[in-house]
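Team,

Forwarding the record for the chain on the shared tracking sheet. I've put the sequence and predicted structure together so nobody has to dig through attachments.
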Amino acid sequence: MKKTGKLIACFIVWVFISIGVFAKDYPVSGFGAKNDGRTLNTAIVQGAIDFITANGGGRLVFDSGVYIMGSVYLKSNVTLHLKKGAELRSSGNGLDFVKDPYIGWMSMIFALKQDNIGITGDGMIDGMGFTTALCMLEYARKGFLVDAMSYDRAKEDNRPVNIYFRECNNVTITGIKLKDPANWNQVYDQCKNVYVDSITVDCKSYWNNDGIDIVDCDGVVIKNSYFDAADDIICFKSHDATKICQNVVVENCSGRSSANGIKFGTLSRGGFRNFKITNVTIFDTYRSAITLQSVDGGIVENILIDGVKSYNTGNVIFLRIGDRYKPLNDGKASILKDVIIKNVYAEVPLSKPDSGYSYEGPVEDLPRNISPSAIVGLPDWRIENVTLSNIEIVYPGGGNPYYAKRGTSKEELESIPEMPFAYPEFSQFKELPAWGFYVRHADNITFDNVILRAKEADYRPAIVVDDAKDLKLQKMTITEPAAKNKKQTILNNVTQKKK
């Protein structure tokens, strides 16, 4: 993890250098842009960007006001600087947005194979997601747009994101507010040196509203930022089997979601390597606070997560190996190994944690009682070398065998389906046989100073481990009302190294 510490210092130096080199300001009003909230400024803003990049670079400055826009392409050595009160707002008309032929997606602000670019300031980008998405759906219904209309909505590639940068070097995103895209919010795809600092994200106006998506990037810092998202908060993806998302630092961030908090996957074809995630707070989140998944033939390795507070979150930790796309992976194994998760405090509610928010997560996979945290591999593709230390999780308890039941006999444990091809979520197995932690097909798993508390009695034991090698349970504390002499740890087919 020494490399990630150096990464932050390099980014800070690069940011100050870039500010000094590309500091010449060009007011967008000088090119004829109108901030009246009515005039479509797309062509003017694009012309200004083209002029600045052709003349050595600088900042295109937006004063206070509302600038209506469709798609524009940011170019090398240009920064969009949004002053306080400045807003780049979607026109709401899908015809004003480009579907880039190389990327295959739509966006308000594109950048493709550019260097030294950024968006800074105290202003806002508002994708008018609900209005724009319904416009695209109407075009699809009328036949103006070819679209499968899954779930009676336009597919993701026919709904614009706010920002999509692909194969860019030296990207700076600081200070701004990003609001309500029609799809994902901001995507950094195969970029190198991405610096995101002190941004605010409010994106819960439509389906698939992720907070931020980092796809196959090398060198990323995300810090001091807040996210309120309908879909995953901070999502790392790997779309290309020949690429890998690596050398990433996340620190001092907080947020809530009607999906997951910190998520690796689900698309994980190349994989993820060398991550350091520290001081993160997740609240009112429907799915998992932390989920690491290798389900598409990729690798997840060398991951440090240190300092997580999770309040009113449906699940805390979910680690999963799967095999969704075997024909695309040429039989390549999915790998998940060398993970440290430490200094975590979490509270899991009995009620739905995102109730009342826009675009709530579905009531799904019932019947089941409250699910435990889980580390679940496959018989031939095992999760390896995971350390959980200084973890405290407070569960509601109350698991009722008359509602849903999963026993702990050898036969019952081995009857739990493997589900290698399923979309990976903590609830995919329905009822699991533990209320605290469930571990299966995993080797060299260490629990060190882990505290599990149940507020009410539960019919299940706290911990169930099925098919594991070299398991270490050190300084475990388990509290459950009226448990008396109840056996709280069930081990099936667990072997240790010979000393």
